[in-house]
Amino acid sequence: MGGDPALKRLRGAVVGLLTMMAGCLLFIPASTSARYELFLFALFVLASGVVIVQVVSNPLISMLGPERTSHSRLTFAQAFNSLGTTVFPYFGSILILGGLATVSASQLSGEELRAYRVAETQAIVVGYSGLAIALAVVAGVVWRFRNAIAVEKHEDGSFFAGLDLLKRTRFGFGASCIFLYVGAEVAIGSLIVNYLTQPHVLGGDELSAGKLVGVYWGAAMIGRFIGSILLRIVSPGKLLSLVALGAVILLGCSSLASGKVAAYSLLAIGLMNSIMFPTIFTLASEGLGSRAADGSGIINVAIFGGAVIPLLTGALADTSGSLSVALVLPAVCYVVIAGFGWYCRRPYSPKLP
Questions:
Q1: Could you say which of 1.20.1250.20, 1.10.10.10, 1.20.1270.360, 1.25.40.10 is the CATH number of the domain covering 164-353?
Q2: How confident is the model at residue 58, as a pLDDT?
Q3: Confidence band for 154, pLDDT divided at 50, 70 and 90
Q4: pLDDT of res. 17
Q5: Are 167 and 38 in contact (CB under 8 A)?
């Protein structure tokens, strides 16, 4: 396949956005039929579009400017990802469900239940149709201004062709850390509610604890905006080591303490997580040159750690009978990440592995 590789990446971004749009539209027949399989398929299509956009956009953002500030640019861009995960669950529920968000189907029966289901279907149709239109507009804008974005040319390749990059110590180490980071982040985010409702932490009900989950993701958002500035004046590798060790300390503090100290120590890990993904990504990708897109694809596959580490953390909690003990596994992940940051503390040189 010929053509300008930069233009191909922009085409890939448009394809990803349109795939996300298709996923949103698939929620309409899924809600009408109320079939779990269709909802699952719609979610799969939507997630596939997100991954395509991530694979294309991460190396593109890192190349849109001087290499020395690529860590800062990607961290700043990722901050808006965190902004979405912090704000949209709240406003999205209002946008899509409206007043239905405060009503439970288990409380209804007969005509009321049927009316609820009709209203629920209409809300999903309107909400996801709006999201689909918004994605179509963004895709159109990206395509309209495709010629205004000039980046250096890069070779094309496939995922399998790029697997040999794992032989490079820096890249292989970094891809492994992406696996561990996403796994640790998701593991902690998944157990927050159960952890906070323990009698020796905050107790209380799940609803009250669930409201505090936003603190975890909100801290990550704030940290990324701050980190985008710090990464311009501090060695990215050293800063990565510092925040990873900070996460280990907070995990230890939370597991050994009780009450609010245990609760907010765990939630503060979101702040430590803030710069990890973009910094690991850019540090691992340094020196890839024309193979940056191959590396991006492999790194984005490595995020399946978010499916593995939480499962192992849960198994450890079940085996030990303690969520505090289960925090040891995410702590080990952060220790390895700290090691990677220290390994990359010096500026990249072709002489380094």
A1: 1.20.1250.20
A2: 64
A3: very low
A4: 84
A5: no
CA distance 289 to 142: 24
At residue 89's C-alpha, the angle toward residues 298 and 253, to 5°, is 75
Listed range (53-67, 146-160, 173-187, 245-259) with the worst mean pLDDT = 146-160
Name the packing angle between helices 259-267 and 236-256 (round to 10°).
150
Are 302 and 281 in contact by the 8 Å Cβ rule? The answer is no
Q: Is the pLDDT of residue 2 over 50?
A: no
> Which CATH number is associated with domain 1-153?
1.20.1250.20
**Domain segments of the chain: what residues?**
1-153, 164-353
Dist CA 294 CA 88 (whole Å): 31
Structure-token pair, residue 76: 């700043």
Q: Rounded CA gap, 295 and 56, in Å?
A: 11
The tokens for 160 are 């399998």
Go through 103-140 and write b for each residue having 16 or more CB atoms within 10 A of its CB, e for each that does not.
eeeeeeeeeeeeebeeebbebbbebbeebbeebbebbe
* Measured distance CA(292)–CA(174) in Å, rounded: 14
What is the gyration radius of the CA atoms in the chain, in angstroms? 22
Higher-confidence position of 320 and 61: 320
Separation of CA 276 from chain center: 11
CA 184 to chain centroid: 12
Q: Which token pair is 278?
A: 């973009």
Assess contact for 300 and 213: CB atoms under 8 A: no
Cα end-to-end span (Å), the chain = 31
Concatenating the DSSP letter of every residue in 262-295 gives HHHHHHTHHHHHTTHHHHHHHHHHTT-GGGHHHH
> Measured between alpha carbons, how far is 85 from 80 in angstroms, rounded to an integer?
9
190 vs 232: CA distance, rounded Å:
32
Alpha helices (runs of H) in 197-327, residue ranges in sequence order: 206-211, 213-230, 236-256, 259-267, 269-273, 276-285, 292-301, 305-320, 323-326
